[in-house]
Amino acid sequence: MKNIVRIIFIALVLTSCEKVVELKYKGNQSRIIIEGNITNEAGPYFVRITKSISLPDTGTYPAIDNAIVTISDDAGYNEILTPQQNGMYRTNALIGEEGRTYTLTVQVENEVYTAQSTMPQHVTFDSIKVEQVLFAGDTERNLIPVYKDPITKGNNYRFVLSVNNKLINQHLVLNDEVRNGNVNILKLEINDDDLKLKRGDELSIKMQCIDKKVALFYTTLALMADNGPGGGTAPNNPPSNISNGALGIFSAHTVDMKSVMIP
Description:
1 helix, nine-stranded mixed sheet, Immunoglobulin-like, single chain, four-stranded antiparallel sheet
C-alpha cells in the first residue's frame, strides 16, 4: 500500500496528544488548522492553531498566537484559553467530564471558527490480545483490543499504538456496527507494509471513546493512507468538525491504556 502525496503534517502536542495527523491538502490557498483535545484525564488541555502553506512551500507551518480561543460546555461553563506561544492555547480550570458536549470557538483574522464534540461514556479497556497467524511462511501478529461494548448503539473507538516507545503513525478505528453490546473480537487494521511486529516488542495502546464525527475524521484518514478502499480514491481532506473551512479536529474523548509484550 502506497500513500498518496502527503501535504500537511500536524503534531498533536496536546495533553492527550499522541500522534501526527496527516491531512491531504488540495489547492494553493492558505487554511487555518485547528487541533484540540479534551479528555477525562486531568487537565490542562490544549488547542493548537497554525496555518497551512502553499504547495510549493516547505518547512513548518506558521503558528498563530493572536487568536481568541474559548471552550464552553452544555452546563454553562465558559473559559478563555491562555496563549502559550508557538500556536498553543491552554485551559486553566476546565475539567473534562463524560457525557458533556464541548464547544470550541476560535476568533482569528476576522473570522470565527466553531466546533462541537461530545465526550462519550468511558468503556473499560480490559487487555490486548496478540494473535499469531501463519501467512505465506511468515508469522503475522494481529492485535485485538479486548473491551465490552455497551448495549447502546453508536459507540466509536480510536486506538493509538506505540511499539517500543515509538508512536506508530497509523489511524486505527473500530465501532459497534457489527458486534454491538458484545466483547470485541475484531483486530486493528494495521498496515503491515509499514510495521512488522516481532517477538519481544513492547506494545502500548491508548483506547479513546470518541463521538461519531471524530470517528469519521479518523476513518477517512485511514482510507486516505490506503489510497481509498481497494486502492480507489479517497477525499482530499477528511471531514472536519470545525466550521468555516478550517482543517483539523476538535475531540472530547475518554482515555484508557494497556500494554503487553509480544511472546
